[in-house]
Amino acid sequence: MNHLIVYSHPNPESFCHAILETAVKTLQSKGHEVVVRDLYALGFDPVLKGSDFIEFQSGNIPSDIKAEQEKISGAKVITFIYPIWWTGLPAMMKGYIDRVFSLGFAYAVGEWGPVGLLTEKKAIIFNTTGAAKELYDESGMFDAIKKTSDTGILNFCGVGILEHKFFTSVPSTDDATRKGYLSEVEAVMSKF
User: Fold this and answer.
1) pTM
2) How far, in Å, CA of 92 to CA of 104, rounded?
3) Which residues neighbour 127 within 8 Å (Cβ) at sequence distance 6 or greater?
4) Which of 33, 45, 69, 134 is least enclosed, having the fewest CB within 10 Å?
């Protein structure tokens, strides 16, 4: 199976990077073809510009956006790995969504409203947080984040969600807990 991983974290020694390494290793051990798009390593420009809109309207897709859309088109499953910052997607990941999941590629506007165009794609999301699980549970933040990313972005584009996992208190937790988190990543990736 063709599997795309969209990864966003500026620190190559982060726990998100450990998640990435575990996901890639697990998928490859199962015989999957894996493509990784490390947005920081690529120097991906997350800023949606007026010139992007002009290009879209003229039928020309900017080359950096086209390259990412081709990766998405070639994948059956897309895994997103990124931290939760200020209860949302980091700017780099949000910019990737803004620029790559564009009108005409990820969705269209039909007679009855928006129509998702990525209906053959499935997604897995791994998020890390600095805050404790209890804080996110009590505030309803897990549900809010899922409503935004799963429903408002991916489902809107027709993408089905296979799994969305949160790994909490990452900076303050112990190594045993982090190893447990990575075992969860391995289990999820082995399942699909």
Assistant:
1) 0.96
2) 22
3) 82, 83, 84, 145, 164, 165, 166, 167
4) 134
Q: Are strands 107-110 and 113-116 parallel, antiparallel or unpaired?
A: antiparallel
| Span 128-187, pLDDT tens digits | 999 999 999 999 999 999 999 999 999 999 999 999 999 999 999 999 999 999 999 999
Q: How many CA atoms lie within 13 A of 170 on its CB side?
A: 20
Give the other-Cβ count within 10 Å of 30's Cβ: 14
**Distances in Å between the alpha carbon of 91 and those of 48, 51, 59, 83, 141?**
11, 19, 26, 11, 19
- The per-residue pLDDT for range 94-130, each reduced to its tens digit, is 999 999 999 999 999 988 899 999 999 999 999 999 9
